[in-house]
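BACKBONE STRUCTURE TOKENS:
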Amino acid sequence: MASAPGGRGEAEPWPLPIRIDLSDTSPDGKAETASEALRARPGVAVFVADGAKGQQTIAVSACGDLRAFVGGRLRGEGPRADLSDVTTSIEACECGSGFEADLACDEVARVRTPEAAALAAGQRAACFVHLDPESEAPACRVIDEYRTLKGSDPATLIGPFAARSHAEHWAAMLDGEFELCRKPSLLMMQPRAEACQYKDMGLCPAPCDGSERMEIYRARVRSALAFDGAAFEAERGRLRSAITESATSMDFEQAGILKKRLGALDAARSAGIGWVTTMDRFRVLAVMPSVKRGWVRIVLHDSGATRLLADVRAGAALADKAAVDVVESGLRRMAREPAGFGPGEADRVALVARHARSSRRTRGSLIAIWRDHGVGCSDSLDWGVDLSDHQRSDLMRAVRRLGGRSGDRPIGRQDGRKGEDEPNPPGANAVPGSPTPPRSGDDGTTA
């Protein structure tokens, strides 16, 4: 098993086994020297300079081709600064995929260049909808500032969304679908508040003025939290079928009502919506090429923590079964670690989500393995550490495909076409309440 530091409670960055000393090399020769020592592989490069207080890190970068990227920076190619005059050494590591390179770069940058890492986090920031059924006034609130997440309960955070507008549309959709309070200031005064216009419009049962008991309202809030991206797509499909049936039976009034509901859902739809869930359930398995030829690298992300679990020999007998054992063992280890969610965890979720939402066709796969809320699942499963049957199947298929032992194509959108008006059509194994079927992630490699 190959492991790497990262995630919760670890101070050391990702290992950088490649060291290139350029201290005695002229600026004109540094690019050639570094290029000769590096291969054209995805990886992370750290540029180091000698300073008055010892060695100082100038830059930490992930790239798809170490040889070309480092050589280019030392030659001053492109719009970026020429680093040849100040760089005295290069530290680097090869990665099997762009996903792993981004993960490694994030780990290294957090320790070596924290200010630059914070800037990068801001550029890829994800947005969330906060909804706490146990709060005094449960209502949707959009969060786009990581600083406000410190100490948050991940079970009350819905996301990740690529933009604030996407989170706002999702919050508005939940308000309408589950009749949630749009005026939390009034809910704070329940049951003696004067209800707002939404009660008169028939869009809110008004727990604020005592017309509805708070325990009933809180139950609806919990249902809204469980309404993830897969349930959202399943409800859209159900409404479309119901509209067709109503129109066929000449019940145009009912068809109009259903069409209005469908329109409200469509307004909340955005790319990658199938990956939306609460952060305590946001668990993603990456099955990527390893830096070792013929091996598969397995990376597990659980809420805000990411672990490089192991390399599995793809062509070996029972390799797919070994991959399942590795993942479930990793889930058990991570389940014993203290959970928490703050700015660092939100940044890691944003990194994973960016690859999950990518439409690039790559050799690797990202598989959603969050809990299915018991829908269509065996009661014997421990959803903290066990994979469901369809999750095991997806994992084993991804391992076989990377090992070249089957004709399987990438998991997800296999023919590169879109479904009817859908940016990411759900697959055949989607059931209401289950995670969106896994799809190819942006692993930065070519077949």
